[in-house]
TrEMBL record:
Catalytic activity: nicotinate beta-D-ribonucleotide + ATP + H(+) = deamido-NAD(+) + diphosphate
GO MF, one example: nicotinate-nucleotide adenylyltransferase activity
Gene that this sequence comes from: nadD
Family per record: Belongs to the NadD family.
EC number per UniProt: 2.7.7.18
Signal peptide residues on this chain, from the entry's feature table: none
PANTHER family, A to Z: NICOTINATE-NUCLEOTIDE ADENYLYLTRANSFERASE-RELATED, PHOSPHOPANTETHEINE ADENYLYLTRANSFERASE
InterPro entries: Cyt_trans-like, NadD/NMNAT, Rossmann-like_a/b/a_fold
Record keywords, A-Z: ATP-binding, NAD, Nucleotide-binding, Nucleotidyltransferase, Pyridine nucleotide biosynthesis, Transferase
Pfam family, one: CTP_transf_like
UniProt entry tagged with the keyword Nucleotidyltransferase: yes
The protein's name in its UniProt record: Probable nicotinate-nucleotide adenylyltransferase
Pathway(s) annotated for this protein in UniProt: Cofactor biosynthesis; NAD(+) biosynthesis; deamido-NAD(+) from nicotinate D-ribonucleotide: step 1/1
């Protein structure tokens, strides 16, 4: 018998903010997820090195998780000494949790760029994909993504409970137009980040003087 599904949300989290957390909270409630695992990345394979150290980003993620019931921190990627690819993490999680459906959260921008991901065709062999969809927005899917949706998309959340992997569910979530890049610029300008990230994370950033302009 399968256990209740869990959510998986990865990222550099530099810093973690409501654009990460609010879609995860909504997915947790809509899908009845037993927990939401936040997995900060140590060495991102497709972007520049993060501004903050791995330990600082891990600390901020831990503070954010503590404010949200059912959220936990998974350190497997932060402890790797090489680039972390999503497929490798999902394979590890599947081996550790053979009877638990895994729901990997991503934004619509990530779904649209999915054919550029490392071993992207194998992702659904290990997890479901839960995609944050902007309400009222009709994305122009690449042909390969459109074909994947035609085969694997479901509108029944219970499919993510009945099967370990293999489905794509589009989440009609509250749109939040906030990126870590924009937030870092705001912080560097000395502006108040209130309501854009958890209070504990904002306090940590202020205490450690993170994202300050270079003298």
């Amino acid at each position: 018998m399968l256990k209740a599904p869990i959510g998986i949300l990865g990222g550099t989290f530099d810093p973690i903010h409501i654009g990460h957390l609010r879609p995860a909270i909504e997915a947790q409630a809509a899908l009845g997820l037993a927990e939401m695992r936040l997995i900060p990345n140590h060495i991102p394979p497709h972007r520049a090195s993060p501004f903050c150290s791995s330990e600082q980003r891990l600390a901020m993620v831990a503070l954010a998780a503590a404010e949200n019931p059912g959220f936990v921190v998974d350190e497997r990627e932060i402890r790797r000494d090489k680039a972390s690819y999503t497929i490798d993490t999902l394979i590890e999680l599947r081996q550790a949790l053979p009877d638990t459906p895994l729901c990997f959260l991503m934004g619509m921008d990530s779904l649209l760029s999915l054919p550029g991901w490392h071993r992207w065709r194998e992702l659904l062999d290990h997890a479901h994909l839960v995609v944050s969809l902007r309400p009222g927005w009709q994305p122009d899917y690449p042909a390969e993504v459109a074909e994947l949706l035609a085969r694997q998309q479901t509108q029944d959340p219970q499919d993510l409970h009945r099967h370990r992997h293999g489905h794509i569910w589009l989440s009609d979530n509250l749109p939040i137009e906030l990126s870590a890049t924009r937030l870092r610029a705001l912080l560097a300008a000395g502006q108040d980040p209130r309501y854009l990230l958890p209070v504990s994370v904002a306090d940590y950033i202020a205490q450690h003087r993170l994202y300050q302009p270079t003298p």
